Amino acid sequence: HPFFDYFVNDAFAAAHRAQPSLVGFSYYVPMLCGRVMEKELFTLTKVLKNPERPCVFALGGAKADDSIEVLKNVLEKQTADQVLTSGVVANIFLVAKGYKIGPNENVIADMGYTNQIEIAKELISKYGDKIVVPIDAALNVDGERVEKELDLNEEITYPIHDMGEKTMKLYEEILKDAKTVVANGPAGVFENKNFLKGTEELLKSTANSKGFSVIGGGHLSAAAEVVGLAGKMDHISTGGGACIEFLAGKKLPVIEMLSKSYEKHKL
Q: Which phi and psi (to 5°) does residue 40 adopt?
């Protein structure tokens, strides 16, 4: 090819996309991975295929369907010993366990996640206590933070915007002894300082655990910057969607093309 000999792709954050600028050149010249891509693939493959144990995943955020796919993948493949849920993900599992969470159920429906409740029920029946749900919640009562223990016999009538302090302590105890921690997605509405505490404590517990800590890109890495803990993590992924799809065991177009390019051009 007259213009160049190699194409170096270092865009892990876009590895789940298949635009011509990401994969097209590899039809004509060998595609190589850059240093950022290499570190991402090496680190994320290690935590999926060969994590030190116990390995704990903490999954939250609003992209609940993606997080539940990750949860399913890491429990099915016996990657994770336990999964801690927060955010909308936790709310789906709470409904699946029979908790009445009032207006929060409408939020699940409005986000198009009603079908995830059945999936969550199946996962609970398969994996039981490996899936950990909050034991208390921080409710948004007219803008104020009000903590309330979760009780199967009592309906929640306000929006859940964070996990409560008892849950933070429970999760801290589990994360403290973990040898591998993978956290993706904030624990609550962290943009509002009244509801930042759960996400902040989750990040602190991840940073302080004895193990290797990985946090997914997107909102959780933004939150880590906000609370000044980004420097304490072993690996912060540059990819939001790419990271979560990789952890869910999906094939990413750019990574598939890197493999094909290697097979085609290896010396």
A: -60, -50
